[in-house]
Amino acid sequence: MGNKKKIILKLSGAVLGMYLFSFLLVPLYDVFCDITGINGKVTQTKNAESSITVEGREISIQFISHNNEGMPWEFKPSERVSKIKTGAMYETSFYAKNTTNKMMTAVAVNSVAPSNAKDFIKKIECFCFQGGIDLMPGEEILLPIKMVVDNELPKNIKNIVLSYTIFDSNLEHNITTDHDSDHVGS
Amino acid sequence: MSAVVENHHDDHHHGPAKGLKRWLYTTNHKDIGTLYLWFSFAMFLIGGVMALVIRAELFQPGMQIVEPEFYNQMLTLHGLIMVFGAVMPAFVGLANWLVPMMIGAPDMALPRMNNLSFWILPFAFFVLLSSLFMDGGAPNFGWTFYAPLSTTYAPPSTTFFIFSVHIMGASSIMGSINVIVTIMNMRAPGITLMKMPLFVWAWLITAYLLIAVMPVLAGAVTMMLMDIHFGTSFFNAAGGGDPVLFQHIFWFFGHPEVYIMILPAFGIVSHIVETFSRKQLFGYSSMVWAMLSIAILSFVVWAHHMFTVGMPLAAELFFMWATMLIAVPTGVKVFNWVATMFKGSITFEVPMLFACAFIVLFTLGGFSGLMVAIVPADFQYHDTYFVVAHFHYVLVPGSVFSIMAAVYFWIPKWTGNMYDERLGRLHFWLSFIGVNVTFFPQHFIGLAGMPRRYPDYALQFADWNMVSSVGAFLFGFSQILFLFIVLKTVMGGKKATSEVWEGARGLEWTVESPAPYHTFTVPPKIN
Ligand code: HEM
Ligand SMILES: [Cu+2]
């Protein structure tokens, strides 16, 4: 019956392996998205300044803001659309105001469309890089963005949309507040 | 481990013990097969009642019978119960009854684990169903439990749902290990891999699929559990996670899962078609290769469920072509069944009626599958009733019909009695008409744009929804007839011969009917 034990062991190993694999999918997914840029998240670029060269063609850039469900802040771009030149530094900002009467921390997540523009947007400064944005009750702030769109941007892209969503970083597990305390995140 | 690999059991040389204890402590593959089959039938009826609640609400536009919250709970539980409670356990029950007899083995390789893997199932479903009575109600996020619906916005009972999914997964995994070890280790001398009956092949492949993907499902619900209770952010964008990741993990499990629910059906239909055509199955080895390639391909097509999440074009194209590639081995199987029937002397007893309906209607479901696999078209079809029609065609006249066909085909062997042919035919025709009246119109309302998973709909969809509901009640109530036929056969009826069906091939037809409590304690001789 040694054979039988061997098969059982192998199969149990496969079960364990696949269980671990399911968790491995999490970092793999991030790595995959990073390499291919398909989830459209722009991360901080190390040598972003090197993209600042001669001015290239004109493109239009559009900013969108979203409040995730349960996020009461006022949050909007200072300019919704503007014409910019590739290869040139561009600065803009988002306006945020804590409309509640308690101190809150927000997290911003960004996304780019079309997603293949992602690799050509070099951000030098962005509030979305910070861990969280703390605002006192009623406090308002201008959140800066400094970026440059690389001259290598594919010719067919004439319009880029940058979208930012803010989340209440404490609320994440707390939305169905009428339920029991099980759902309050730690 | 040692308790698990223990092979001999106490009642080896006696008949079954008496009373309830027989069923609680049994390690006999036939008893456990029977338990699985009855359990599956009970779940089929419970899930069916939920389906009728859904169809009753959809009989007319507007809210009539249930609250939207309760509707969502019915929808969720219906899907979960039918997939994990009805279809999968039925196939495991059939595997228990048939695999040892088909390969000339005295029992399953791991009888005690077999007992355990059955008895934790009723417990899992008790936990799941009890969530209906909990604060906040039962899970309401659909059988696909997408995050964050199933995490941030979920009812408190979700924790119990996760627990029950873990138990179901453990049961399936133990069942699969058992099947694989039995097939690998206990075949009678002379039964080489390429001489195994197709049902055994189908189950071998299915068991490997289960081993590969049930742990991934367990991983997905574990991550949900951690997001809900331990403040992790696997699927929470605010904390750096990604809800789309949930869909990838879920469908990495989910697509192979749909083949888990159809491969054993392929095996069953092959046996029935060759028996009632009185010919040898056409293209045995191509059938095996087709199943193997379907199983392997099923791991690289999962994102066809997510064409609309915003994947890059290259990925959409890859998943589209990979999905369409699966239609090739599937087509091979359908052609082989038809070729088997060609010029055979066919008779249409009830199992054959169900098998023929399977071939036609499953193929129809495959065609609508091809339609939803076309990316640009799926942007319109996705999350409409067209998808509902697609998967019900492959699952009801597909998997469920194959299970009914199997019951009619092998019940004379199990009970020693022939079923009532006239009632069986009536059951077939009622089910056949019921299924088509229910699901065919859903193609139309889906193409016309009716979204799935809502308790109400726009007026232009009213007529076909009414037709669909009428069909659902017809199909549902016909299953009471099925229950009656099965009970009647268990109680008595015309005595079956050992062979049961004229010229039936396979070792199970060489033992007397009903099959003795212990079969093949001495391995049979194979020529
Ligand atoms: C030729 C074979 C098949 C093809 C090409 C195919 C393709 C697809 C595609 C593309 C979808 C996603 C549609 C959408 O959500 O927009 C889908 C959904 C589905 N298919 Fe199939 N399929 C096939 C066979 C099967 C089989 C054999 C089964 C099960 C026995 C099955 C069960 C399902 C289920 C359950 C869903 C819906 C899941 C959900 O969203 O709830 N399919 N199929
Ligand atoms: Cu699929």
What key phrases describe this protein's structure?
heterodimer; A: 186 residues; alpha+beta; Ctag/Cox11 (Pfam 04442); 5-stranded mixed β-sheet; 4-stranded antiparallel β-sheet; 1 helix; 19% helix; 36% strand; flat; B: 527 residues; mainly alpha; Cytochrome C Oxidase, Chain A; 16 helices; globular; binds protoporphyrin IX containing FE; binds copper (II) ion
How would you sum up this structure, described in words?
Chain A is built from one helix and nine strands. In chain A, the strands form two sheets. A five-stranded mixed sheet of chain A has the order 3-1-9-5-7, with no helix packed on it. In chain A, strands 2-4-8-6 form a four-stranded antiparallel sheet, with no helix packed on it. The C terminus of chain A is likely disordered. Chain A has 186 residues and is of the alpha+beta class. In chain A, 19% of the residues lie in helices and 36% in strands. Chain A has two domains: 36 residues; 131 residues, Ctag/Cox11 (Ctag/Cox11 (Pfam 04442), Sandwich). Chain B has 527 residues and is mainly alpha-helical. Chain B has one domain: Cytochrome C Oxidase, Chain A. In chain B, helix 4 runs parallel beside helix 6 and helix 5 packs antiparallel against helix 6. The longest helix of chain B has 35 residues. Chain B is globular, with a radius of gyration of 23 Å. The chains are: A alpha+beta (186), B mainly alpha (527). Chains A and B meet through helix 1 and strand 9 of A and helix 6, helix 7 and helix 8 of B. Bound molecules: protoporphyrin IX containing FE and copper (II) ion. Protoporphyrin IX containing FE binds next to helix 11, helix 12, helix 13 and helix 14 of chain B.
